[in-house]
Structure formats: C-alpha cells, structure tokens
Amino acid sequence: MHIGPSGAARLLGDIGDIRRFASRAHFASWNGTAPIDASSGDNNRHRLSRAGNRRINRALHIMAIVQLRHDTEGRRCYRRRLAAGKTPMEALRALKRRLSDVVYRQMLADAKQLETGPGGHAGATLTSSAADPTPMIDTSDKSLPGPAERQPKATLMITT
Predict the structure, then answer these.
(1) What's the pTM?
(2) pLDDT of 70-91, one tens digit each?
(3) Where exactly are the structural domains of the chain?
C-alpha cells in the first residue's frame, strides 16, 4: 500500500492514537467504511456508509482509486469481487474496507513500536538515566570555562 504525504498527514492528524479504537471494525465504523445492510427480500446487499469521518473516508477512497489504476493487490481484489457478481460500487466498498483494515493494522504496529518505557522515552529501562530520579553527571553536564573571546573581523579592502 502506498500513500502520499498529504494523505498520510491526514490519517495521522485525524486518527491520532490508533489504540483508542478497540478493533478494526470499530475503526471502520468510525471512518465510514463499515458496510451497511441494504438487503431486501432474498437480495443480500451492503452499501457504503455516509457516516463517519469524511476526511479519512476520502483519503481511503483516493487510496482505493490509486490501487485500481495500478497493477496492485487491491486491483486484483476488486476484480475478484466483480467476477463474484458484485457491482462496481460494492467492489469499491469492499476495497475501501480492506484498506481501512490495512491502515489500522499498520498504525497499530507503529504505535506498539513507539511505546515508551518507564522514563517516558522509547527504550528506557529502570536503570537508565532517563528513569533515574538522580541521574549521574558526566562531562557533558559540566559548566563551560567562561564566555568565548571575540575574534576581530577581517576588513575588506576595495581598490579602484
């Protein structure tokens, strides 16, 4: 899955902490890619939701259209849905839901990778100076010997 910088910024900005969503289904419901039952009689159909975060839904829609324009797994998934008798809109809805799940899974993996330790820093341990209430002072913490001496500026001589 590829996404441009503006789409990635939109996802990160609007979603925030992905861990606030209990599941991928909750995330899909929030972004409007969860299918809504539109069945009637013996005809079982689902349609796109008009609810949810429209900006995230639009970012997922753009991702889906880009997937369709190139030879990707998303395009193959879309064509499998069409071959199974789905309408183009139903196949697009399924692709958007699939992309929603991919975004959820990737952002969850990234959030787990960036989890912080007890000192508030990634990789901090109970014995690190970041978590120690009285950190050890090393040479970088010592004060400097005094103010720097001013160096005379070179003058530019112009001859005509």
Answers:
(1) 0.67
(2) 999 999 999 999 999 999 998 9
(3) 5-109
